[in-house]
């Protein structure tokens, strides 16, 4: 099958604003799925509510469009009753870490073999641009016109409370590293979280001074750098994949860990 067969191109153009980063994630996800042989017979996509949540509708897969913040319990339930399926969650930062934050904590703890792609546009995009859990301190938003007063949630720190965790950081500009992160996350035999910085030009970017989505991509290009090889932690604006100890199948010898791959930008 070709990559385009993973997408319902007959439904294009999508509802996403021109220049939105979500389509770049969908394109790379479809590419990886084609490469590793995922299709509608062996894979389910679970999405939440928000602009990101619409991705399931445009992909040629079985998908569940869950309630806001409820992707992870639904994903875990599917994985529990149909362990042979690949379960991929695609959700916004608000969906994942705000209303879904409690589920996130416990999924990290339980370590199900599901892949989470978090479209981290640092805002509640769909609802007009309110402050979300990943909004940087000081950012002007619809709900914080004087600047958000709070530090963003530490997604990497949360994920790494599980010693078998996989955490990757990438941006939609860095398409090679994004593909690699998605592929390795799908292949990881436990909970894998890909934190993808992505632009919401209409309900975030313009308010904070960007003139276009292109300018936001240029900003990702110049501000993000690959983590050094061997890093066990990613600093802010570092791209990379942190692999802790691989989950141990029952009866197997304990693998070595932790290890890290720096990324080539
Ligand atoms: C229970 C519930 N509370 C609130 C909402 C309103 N709501 C819809 S999407 C959304 C936030 C979307 O932000 P995010 O998850 O980051 O997704 P994005 O639109 O940025 O992709 C909110 C608060 C809702 N649909 N359901
Ligand atoms: S509002 Fe933002 S996140 Fe939603 S489609 Fe438009 S640019 Fe994308
Ligand atoms: Mg968002």
Task: Produce a short descriptive summary.
This protein is α/β, with parallel strands linked by helices.
Question: In words, what does this structure look like?
Answer:
The protein is an alpha/beta fold. The radius of gyration is 17 Å and the shape is globular. Helix 6 links the parallel strand 5 and strand 6 (192-197). It has helices at 22-36, 71-81, 93-97, 101-110, 155-159, 175-187, 201-205, 213-223, and strands at residues 43-47, 62-65, 86-92, 115-120, 166-171, 192-197, 225-226, 238-243, 259-262. The chain has one domain (3-262): Rossmann fold, CATH 3.40.50.970. The longest helix has 15 residues, at 22-36. Helix 1 (22-36) crosses helix 6. Strands 1, 2, 3, 4, 5, 6, 7, 8 and 9 form a 9-stranded mixed sheet that branches. It contains 8 helices and 9 strands.
CATH superfamily: Thiamin diphosphate (ThDP)-binding fold, Pyr/PP domains
**What is the averaged pLDDT score?**
93
Outline, from the CA principal axes?
globular
The CATH topology is Rossmann fold
> How is the main sheet built?
9 strands, mixed
Kindly estimate the percentage of residues that lie in beta strands according to DSSP: 15-25%
Secondary structure tally, helices: 8
Radius of gyration: 17 Å
How many runs of DSSP E, i.e. beta strands? 9
The CATH first-level class comes to: Alpha Beta
Key phrases:
265 residues; alpha/beta; Rossmann fold; nine-stranded mixed sheet; 8 helices; 28% helix; globular; binds thiamine diphosphate; binds iron/sulfur cluster; binds magnesium ion
